[in-house]
Amino acid sequence: MDFIDYLDSRPIYQQIADRYRQLILTGVMLPDEQLPSVRKLAMELSTNPNTVQKAYAALEREGYVYSVKGRGNFVRANETLKSKQKEEMKGKMIDLIKEIQAVGLNSQELFAEAMEEAAEDDRD
Amino acid sequence: MDFIDYLDSRPIYQQIADRYRQLILTGVMLPDEQLPSVRKLAMELSTNPNTVQKAYAALEREGYVYSVKGRGNFVRANETLKSKQKEEMKGKMIDLIKEIQAVGLNSQELFAEAMEEAAEDDRD
Amino acid sequence: MDFIDYLDSRPIYQQIADRYRQLILTGVMLPDEQLPSVRKLAMELSTNPNTVQKAYAALEREGYVYSVKGRGNFVRANETLKSKQKEEMKGKMIDLIKEIQAVGLNSQELFAEAMEEAAEDDRD
Amino acid sequence: MDFIDYLDSRPIYQQIADRYRQLILTGVMLPDEQLPSVRKLAMELSTNPNTVQKAYAALEREGYVYSVKGRGNFVRANETLKSKQKEEMKGKMIDLIKEIQAVGLNSQELFAEAMEEAAEDDRD
DNA sequence: GTGGTCTAGACCACA
DNA sequence: GTGGTCTAGACCACA
C-alpha cells in the first residue's frame, strides 16, 4: 500500500498528489468519496502529516478535491477536470515534440516506434 | 548571447548543459571544437564559474565532451551519441504515452493535435 | 431543505448562522417566531447538534435570537437590527472601496460593472 | 517594519502574501526587483522561515513572483497581473452586492454612502 | 547565502 | 477525530 518511491526524484508531497490525481481522473475514486485522513495516510506511508497536508492542499487548489474542516477531504465532481487533464497532457506532448525536433530527430517516426514499444511492454 | 532564462524552472547549470548538449547533437558544434572556457562563459552569462563548471562536468560525465587539463573542454567525436540520444527521447515518449493511456486518453489523437499546435507555435 | 453546501469554504456553523440571520433580516422569520430545535435541525441537515448549537449561540450573541431554557430559540423583535446590519454592510463596502483605490483602480467604474454582472447572474 | 497583525484573523502566511501582492500591484516593487530572502524576512517579522516560504510559494503560484534557486525571489513583469487583479476586485464587489441585496438593502445607495465616508476617512 | 523539502510536535477551529 | 497553521530545526540542491 506504500506507493512512495524514495529513489524517485519527485518530492514526496508531489508523489502523493500525483497518485491521487490519477486515482481521481481514472475514476478509481468517485465524486464525494472521502480520501484517507491526513493523519491516517501519513501513518500508512510512514511520512509526516505536514507532507500529506501539502499534497492535499495542492489537490484542493487544483480543484480535484474539496476539504471540509472537521470532516475530511472529498473528491470533487468536476466535469471540467477531464478536459483540463487533456490540455495538460497535450502540453507535455508539445514540449517533448519540440525537444525532439530541436535535436533534429523525426518526431513522427519516433512516436510510432514508441507506440509499438509501449504496446509490447503492456503484453509483458 | 545570454541564453539563460531566469523564469525557466530549470536550474541554471541545467540550462547551460541542455544548451551545449543541443549544440553538439545538432552539429552546430563539431568534434574537437573547443567550448568557451569556464571563466569566459561565466562572465558572458554573468553567472558563477561554479555553475558553469557543474554544467561542463555533467556534459563530460554523459560523454558529450572531454576535458584536457590546462587546455579546456572539447566536443567528443562520438558516433553513438546520436543513437543514445534517440533512445533517451524514445524513453521519454514511451513514458508519456503510458501516462496518457493510463488516464484513458487516446494517445494517437493527442499526438496529432500536439503536432499541429507545435507547428503553429513555430510559425509565430 | 438542506441548505448546507460542502463546497462552500465557510464552516458549517457559519452557513447555518448566515442562513438564519438572513431569514430574520429579510422578514421571512418574524419576531417571536420559533427556530427549529437544535436536534431537529441537526437531523434535517444531517449534521452534528454541536454545530447547530454553535450557530444558535452566535445568533444569540449578536442579538438576532433569544433562547428560553427548555422551550427553544425565538426571533428577537429588535428594531435596531436593521440599522446595525446596514452599518455592517457599509463597513464592508468602505473596506473594499479602500482596497480598490489602494491598487489604483476606479471604484465607481468597478462598482457599475459589478452591478451589471450581479444582475446577469440573477437572470441565470 | 513589522506588518504582521496577530489580531488579524488571516493566517500569518496570508498577511505576508497579501502585503507583497499589494506592493507589487501598486508598483512599489518593480519587475525583477528582489524580495527579501526567506530567512531575512522571517527574522525581521520574528516568524518562522517556513511561514515566509509558504507565502512566497503562494505568490509564485499566482504569478506575482518568480523564484530562482540559490538566488532569491523576484517580482515578475507580468502585464496581465493588473487585469487579473481587477477581476478579483470585481469578484469581491459582486459578492458583496449580492450579500447586500440578499438582506433587502439598496446597494446603490449604500455604495454612495460608503464612498462619501471613505473619502472622509482619507481627509483625516 | 538562497530556496525547497521534510520531520517532530504543538495548538486551534470545527464536527 | 478531522483539517489548518505554526515553530524549531535539519538537510539538500544550487549559485
TrEMBL record, chains A, B, C, D:
Gene3D superfamilies, sorted: Winged helix-like DNA-binding domain superfamily/Winged helix DNA-binding domain (1.10.10.10)
Every HTH gntR-type domain range: 10-78
Pfam families from the UniProt entry: GntR
Alphabetically ordered keywords of this record: DNA-binding, Transcription, Transcription regulation
Listed GO MF terms: DNA binding; DNA-binding transcription factor activity
Name under which the protein is recorded: Transcriptional regulator (GntR family)
Gene source species: Lactobacillus delbrueckii subsp. bulgaricus (strain ATCC 11842 / DSM 20081 / BCRC 10696 / JCM 1002 / NBRC 13953 / NCIMB 11778 / NCTC 12712 / WDCM 00102 / Lb 14)
